[in-house]
Amino acid sequence: GEDVEQSLFLSVREGDSSVINCTYTDSSSTYLYWYKQEPGAGLQLLTYIFSNMDMKQDQRLTVLLNKKDKHLSLRIADTQTGDSAIYFCAESTASNTGKLIFGQGTTLQVKP
Amino acid sequence: DAGVTQSPTHLIKTRGQQVTLRCSPKSGHDTVSWYQQALGQGPQFIFQYYEEEERQRGNFPDRFSGHQFPNYSSELNVNALLLGDSALYLCASIGGGIGYEQYFGPGTRLTVT
Would you place residue B7 in the very low, low, confident or very high pLDDT band (cuts 50, 70, 90)? Predict the structure, then answer.
């Protein structure tokens, strides 16, 4: 079945690194995404990774994928107060790229 | 380049009424997906439209229906509204029909009283 799990809350100090974790169950998942949602807003696509990749880096963001364990993580370096938001992990398959399966979201709180 | 736009921003309806939400995809995108996001939850896939047809559907009742127009814009209709339909409704657009990058609009907040 399709299921994506995330921890619900993470609190860090400004300037520290944040690591948000996600696990998924669908072994046919081909694309894995991270979205950011600020209060009262829609979803902003942060980054994505193909299942044949282990890592992807984009400025302060690093995505790590352990396909064997079906574990995905998002590391935010030098976390800023503006990074406070809800972060969603999502997955889709090659045969079904239009349907994203989302986790329940991780609330990141950045303390000054 | 305009991103995904949705209207209205907020809407209040009474149980039993019908509602229509609208979405214009990102320029150059021809596929639209709709999601329902209940408070404190992740978005749930409702359905997707491509070439003016519903291509796939999530686990939502027939009260939820949609339409896509020749200019790729889309509508989501919900009939016989229930209190549980109160949510943020998000539209996402995809380019190329089988593209994997989905860009979301700001959403429509529907409150059913």
Answer: very high
- Return the HEC string of chain B: CCCCEEECCEEEECCCCCEEEEEECCCCEEEEEEEEECCCCCCEEEEEEECCEEEEECCCCCCEEEEECCCCCEEEEECCCCHHHCEEEEEEEEECCCCCCEEECCCEEEEEC
**CB within 8 Å: B90 and A98:** no
Chain A CB contacts of B48 under 8 Å are 98-99
pLDDT of residue A88: 97
Contact A80, A110 (CB under 8 A): yes
Q: Shortest CA distance to B48 belongs to which of A100, A80, A22?
A: A100
Tens digits of per-residue pLDDT, A26-59?
877 788 999 999 988 889 999 989 888 899 999 9
Q: Which two tokens stand for residue B112?
A: 């059913």
